[in-house]
Design goal:
Blueprint lengths: L7 H11 L6 H4 L2 H20 L3 H14 L3 E2 L9 E6 L3 E6 L9 E7 L4 E12 L2 E9 L12 E8 L5 E6 L19 H5 L3 H4 L6 E5 L12 H14 L9 E7 L4 E3 L5 E4 L2 H15 L7 E7 L16 H13 L7 H7 L2 E4 L3 E2 L21 E4 L15 H13 L4 E3 L14 H5 L4 E6 L1 E3 L6 E4 H15 L5
The structure holds manganese (II) ion (MN) (2 copies).
The site of one manganese (II) ion has 3 residues, from loops.
């Protein structure tokens, strides 16, 4: 015999109490919250436009921090509570000193400020068929075909023999020229591209950027007169000679500003959301903190996209240097295990973007466990590939703590991973932080078209990333 069962109301009540539902951020926000989210996205777009390279991002963060009362470590008085620290112009850290001694651990958010791009080779400039080109070597994981036939800007620095730095930024001002990598016309592409695998259709050695085409007027029999003309322009405008390009870090990045995407302007399309979405969120979150209990640290790292090696990357001892400085300032007696103890009592977020589910590629996503666009910051317990290899894999206790913090602060979040099992995978700086003994978990903004010249993020997710980081740090200004 069929029992009576629950009423519709009882059913709903039970469901609400027991089941977890992912909720779209927009449907959860108040009018004020929505306004705040849109304003946040507008400010973030300005940051994106100002900070297209790791050097520019580091500089932008340091400059803005100045306005929020952060003082450089080496110039900070004894009772200064807001500290900043930069290294090599490519990474930086912000600290808000807490009431408790640093030995009780810090709350750390680490993000990265480098992004996939095309770097110049050491001997980049050449001439072929009366056109000048620059040879590039790509940085980070790119799909090479995405970089063809689009306007590129040249950003970076050349260091003269005497140490003087020459800054270069060409292609962002609407009056500037831009640069581009040409592609072969479809009429002639059958054998050279169309019949090949997509990963082989455009090779690294074809990523040559067109840079000039007017020969220097002179005797008819002179060779490479376009190249010489370009060198002449570089010399007149920047004081450079060809050898200066050896001691340069010049990067081709997509030209032009971040844009709203969609008729309803739901998204921000831009170069470099990975990982400025998280870098900017952690900056805004720490800048608003006053005097927390535990010390807060925001770490902005370089070299993540090439494996975190190098002395400005997460595998270096930068965080240790910051922590050491804090221990020294706090006047606790420094035993051999003081630093390690401080790290082991610390909590960290590895702030990095994740893949949002793309409805056109459901074959690589697991839609119950991948991040949905517009559903908030994505908490990612583990990354890695082929059975979590290379993952930090956060502890259940830590996951429990962080969701408690977010729930009580009204943060809309989702839990997910990157793609189907065995479909691919990726890593973040989480495991390098974990090496120091602290608890770490990945949490960041879902993106579409990650690592492309025009990545797409939902404004609701950008905003919730900031709200989540702020809650992690202990809130602060509303
Ligand atoms: Mn990243
Ligand atoms: Mn990346």
């Amino acid at each position: 015999m069929k029992g009576k069962g629950l009423s519709r109301e009882e059913y709903k009540k039970l469901e609400k109490r027991l089941a977890r539902k992912r909720r779209h951020v927009w449907s959860q926000l108040t009018d004020e919250g929505r306004k705040d989210a849109l304003k946040y996205a507008d400010d973030y777009k300005k940051f994106l436009d100002r900070a297209k390279t790791e050097r520019e991002a580091s500089e932008a963060i340091m400059e803005a921090s100045d306005g929020y009362g952060f003082v450089p470590f080496d110039r900070a008085g004894e009772d200064a509570h807001r500290l900043m620290w930069g290294f090599k112009g490519k990474m930086c850290a912000l600290v808000v000193v807490g009431r408790r001694p640093i030995t009780e651990g810090a709350l750390i958010i680490a993000s990265h400020i480098d992004a996939p791009r095309l770097d110049l080779k050491q001997n980049p400039l050449y001439e072929d068929l009366d056109m000048a080109y620059l040879k590039t070597h790509y940085y980070g994981g790119i799909k090479k075909f995405q970089w063809l036939t689009r306007p590129l800007a040249l950003h970076g620095v050349a260091i003269k023999e005497d140490g003087r730095a020459v800054s270069i930024n060409i292609g962002e001002d609407p009056l500037d020229p831009v640069f581009t990598i040409n592609d072969i016309l479809p009429h002639l592409a059958y054998k050279v591209q169309a019949d090949k695998k997509i990963s082989e259709a455009v090779t690294g050695e074809k990523l040559n950027v067109i840079f000039g085409g007017i020969p220097l007027a002179g005797p008819d029999d002179m060779k490479e007169s376009v190249k010489l003309s370009i060198l002449n322009l570089l010399n007149e405008r920047y004081g450079l000679v060809e050898e200066d390009l050896v001691s340069a870090e010049l990067e081709f990045v997509p030209a032009g500003p971040a844009r709203d995407v969609g008729l309803d302007r739901a998204f921000v399309g831009a170069y470099g959301h990975d990982d400025r979405a998280c870098a900017y969120a952690s900056f805004m979150a720490i800048a608003q903190q006053k005097r927390p209990d535990n010390t807060l640290i925001a770490l902005f790292l370089d070299k993540e996209e090439i494996g975190s090696d190098g002395n400005t990357g997460a595998k270096s001892r930068l965080l240790e240097a910051v922590m050491y400085g804090l221990v020294r300032r706090s006047k606790v007696s420094l035993e051999t295990d003081t630093l390690l103890g401080a790290f082991m009592r610390s909590k960290a977020i590895s702030g990095d973007v994740t893949a949002g589910v793309d409805p056109d590629y459901l074959e690589v996503h697991e839609k119950r466990n991948d991040a949905l666009m517009g559903y908030g910051i994505c908490l990612t317990k583990y990354t890695g590939s082929r059975g979590k290899v290379g993952a930090n894999d956060a502890h259940a206790e830590y996951m429990g703590w962080i969701r408690g913090v977010w729930n009580s602060a009204g943060v809309i979040w989702q839990a997910g991973e990157l793609g189907k099992v065995d479909e691919g995978g990726g890593g973040t700086v989480a495991k390098y932080l974990a090496e120091q003994g602290m608890d770490v978990v990945d949490a960041g903004t879902p993106l579409l078209s990650m690592h492309s010249p025009f990545e797409v993020a939902h404004k609701a997710d950008l905003y919730m990333t900031y709200r989540a980081y702020r809650a992690f740090y202990g809130e602060g200004k509303k």
